[in-house]
Specification:
The complex is a heterodimer of chains A (47) and B (644). Helices cover 70% and strands 0% of the residues of chain A. Chain A is an all-alpha fold. Chain B has 20 helices and 18 strands. Chain B is globular. The chains are: A mainly alpha (47), B alpha+beta (644). At the A-B interface, helix 1 of A face helix 5, helix 12 and helix 13 of B.
Chain lengths: 47, 644
């Protein structure tokens, strides 16, 4: 493969890596929120 | 050569040295597992240094508990008064005695030597039934008691995971060994440091060394044999795959895997950090917005019952952005009585309160189900107290309200959310109390998790961002109450009018299970704060005033109590009519005593409900719209006569 063909592939990988990293970052931030929730809510029986 | 031709299997042998190394590793692993599962037998007389807490949360705490549910013994500490304790013993199914009182001051440390039958009987051949507790120069007590057999792994120190009602689950007192090591939790191992445990395990270790070594050698040798055959089988398969004209799907997966593995790491990391940082900034931004639309009060879709946990910033920002500073802010808190259970949105009592107070006041209702005076809305109150100089916090309360500083199990999350974000101004003395509370809560796993989570959230602002997303955009937590629309944003729900309030009221009076339960609770409530003498006469408990004062003293800091109005709500006269005249008189007297002691602690206090009719209530304690209007009139009169 010549360098001209390799360049777009390289940028595609960089972009894909960045997007995947961003998704992981958002998921991790969301995970911090979910971990703060109790596994079962309290039960309140109204009249 | 095709893949259908039979191939001789390649044979490989693991060198003997490798097998011996594997055997040693397996032996060490077996010894480690044995050590982890082994519990030493403690001495028959256990010596512990007991430090009395300066601020116990209840009147009993576990000291030493042994056994399992149904066959357990409990040795606990009873806090009689601020300078006196006693030891109590309870053997499951048989009860037990209480020691004479012992003088021990808060934060004082004494050495307690305990000979408990369940522990002494761990020795082979022992069969004791004498409990002995001694504290030098203060106590030397012996009693014959029942006991149950236990194992060393079933001994709990300052802990009660066994159950039973003899004592609560955790102690705030500190137990240490004579060498200073803190003892807390389950198993005899807790009593020893690791070097002591290893020394005690050594004789046992020597006994099991030979059988473990033989097992390790057998596993290593057999494993090597099968490992060689497995490698040979895969090697043969790889050769036939490579030679096959029909490549398997595994080759496709391999290609995808190699493409993925060639993704550069640095852009991934940069993308991760930028996105995470962006979420943190978005959380900060969301925390400063007015989250709630058309807010009147908290109701089910925006309450913790359905996994929606409002954050401290969300409450505070709502007030800051909707109430001008020059107005007199009336922040309503407390439980469902003030949330308006039994009242429709159009007939909510705080609407009437706003109308009575006029435009110079702004009434905000942050009351929420099962919240005590220091819970939930009180956090917003403390955070806003300095910004709104003319602010008052109006809350439900009771003579026997017993809520910790952070609001208790359900709502403590919001207190610590505010605390770790620096939203709660407090004096040095109050901060020391709060630090002590943190230290106590972090003694068990749920407490450690809560505090660690809130420390992290003080930086990440994850709860602010994602609860904002859940209210405005998409709710992502499954709740059983909304099976058909699990992802609907919670801000899309609007509280509907319930046309059946009269039916609810009738049901509360006529349903025998509910009515009988409330009457029984009424009989129980009429005894609270009283003691009965041998002649059957009821007298006020001499400790009740001190107890009320102590409980309200820990709820809110002293500097905000003058701006807190505690409203004591009287109950439904329909249900009180089933009590005797003496019982009703005792209840009324206890209300008056509560009123006096709450005022003495620096709060404002108001009794409401005396003279209400049964029709003002929807059940034993919640109010219909007519009752809500009467409450609004009483509260408004109090606020206007003494404005904040």
């Amino acid at each position: 493969m010549n360098p001209r063909q390799r360049r777009p592939q390289r940028w595609a990988r960089i972009l894909a890596a960045t997007i995947l990293g961003a998704m992981a970052g958002v998921c991790f931030h969301y995970l911090l929120y979910r971990l703060s929730l109790p596994s079962t809510p309290f039960i309140y029986v109204a009249f | 050569m095709s893949r259908f031709d039979a191939q001789p299997r390649a044979r490989s042998r693991t060198p003997i040295r490798a097998r011996l190394v594997a055997a040693v590793i397996i032996l060490l692993g077996l010894c480690a597992v044995d050590f982890a599962l082994w519990n030493p037998i403690p001495p028959p007389v256990v010596s512990l240094q007991f430090t009395r807490p300066s601020w116990p949360e209840g009147d009993r705490e576990p000291f030493l508990c042994t056994g399992v549910s149904g066959a357990a013994d409990f040795l606990y500490v009873t806090y009689i008064d601020p300078e006196t304790i006693a030891f109590g013993y309870d053997s499951w199914g048989a009860g037990g005695p209480t020691s004479p009182p012992v003088k021990i001051k808060p934060d004082e440390t004494v050495t307690v030597r305990v000979r408990m039958p369940a522990i002494a009987n761990l020795r082979r051949g022992a069969d004791e039934n004498t409990l002995q507790i001694s504290i030098p120069q203060r106590l030397d007590w012996r009693a014959t008691v029942g006991n149950h057999r236990c194992t060393p792994g079933q001994i709990e120190w300052a802990w009660n995971d066994i159950g039973g009602t003899a004592c609560p689950e955790r102690a705030f007192a500190t137990l240490r060994t004579p060498s200073g090591h803190v003892v807390r939790g389950v198993g005899t191992k807790r009593y020893y440091r690791v070097p002591e445990l290893l020394r005690a395990w050594r004789p046992h270790g020597f006994r099991v060394l030979l059988p473990y070594a033989l097992c390790a050698l057998a596993i290593a040798w057999v494993g090597a044999q099968w490992g060689g055959r497995t490698r040979a089988w895969f090697a043969t398969r790889a050769e036939t795959e490579a030679a096959s004209p029909f490549p398997s799907r595994a080759a496709d997966h391999y290609e995808a895997y190699t493409w993925l593995s060639r993704l550069p790491a640095r852009p991934f990391l940069i993308g991760f950090l930028v996105a995470f940082g962006g979420c943190v900034l978005a959380g900060h931004w969301a925390s400063r917005q007015v989250l709630f639309r058309s807010f009147l009060r908290f109701f089910q879709p925006i309450q913790p019952q359905t996994y929606f946990y409002p954050t401290a910033h969300e409450l505070v920002s709502y007030v800051e952005r909707t109430v001008p500073r020059e107005k007199r802010l009336v922040l309503v808190g407390g439980a469902s009585y003030f949330r308006g259970t039994g009242q429709n949105p159009s007939g909510l009592w705080t609407r009437d309160l706003q109308r009575r107070l006029g435009d110079g006041y702004a009434v905000v209702n942050f009351a929420i189900d099962q919240a005590g005076p220091p819970a939930f809305a009180a956090v917003a109150f403390q955070a806003l107290a300095r910004e709104y100089p003319h602010m008052i916090y109006v809350t439900t309360g009771g003579t026997f309200s017993d809520d910790p500083t952070d609001g208790g199990d359900v709502y403590r999350y919001i207190y610590w959310d505010a605390y770790y974000k620096g939203m709660l101004p407090m004096s040095k003395a109050w901060r020391e109390r709060v630090q002590l509370l943190i230290e106590r809560e972090e003694r068990d796993r749920p407490g450690q998790e809560l505090h660690l989570g809130k420390r992290i959230d003080a930086v990440a602002y994850a709860c602010d961002l994602w609860s904002w997303v859940g209210y405005r955009g998409l709710f992502t937590v499954w709740a059983d109450s909304y099976p058909l629309h699990p992802f609907r944003p919670r801000g899309a729900y609007h509280e509907a009018e319930d046309p059946n309030m009269a039916e609810h009221q009738r049901h509360a009076r006529e349903a025998p299970e509910y009515r009988d339960l409330m009457i029984e609770r009424g009989h129980g409530g009429a005894k609270m704060g009283y003691v009965q003498d041998s002649g059957g006469e009821w007298h006020i408990d001499p400790t009740v005033r001190k107890s009320i004062a102590a409980r309200y003293d820990r709820m809110l800091p002293r500097d905000v109590r003058g701006r807190t109005l505690v409203v004591l709500l009287h109950g439904n006269p329909f249900f009180e009519s089933f009590l005797s005249r003496e019982e009703r008189a005792r209840i009324a007297e206890m209300f008056d005593i509560g009123d006096e002691e709450i005022r003495r602690e620096g709060y404002r206090c108001l009794q409401v409900g005396k003279g209400f009719s049964a029709d003002d209530y929807v059940d034993v304690g919640h109010f219909m719209a007519s009752g809500g209007r009467k409450i609004a009139a009483a509260v408004a009169a109090d606020l206007l006569s003494n404005p904040p």
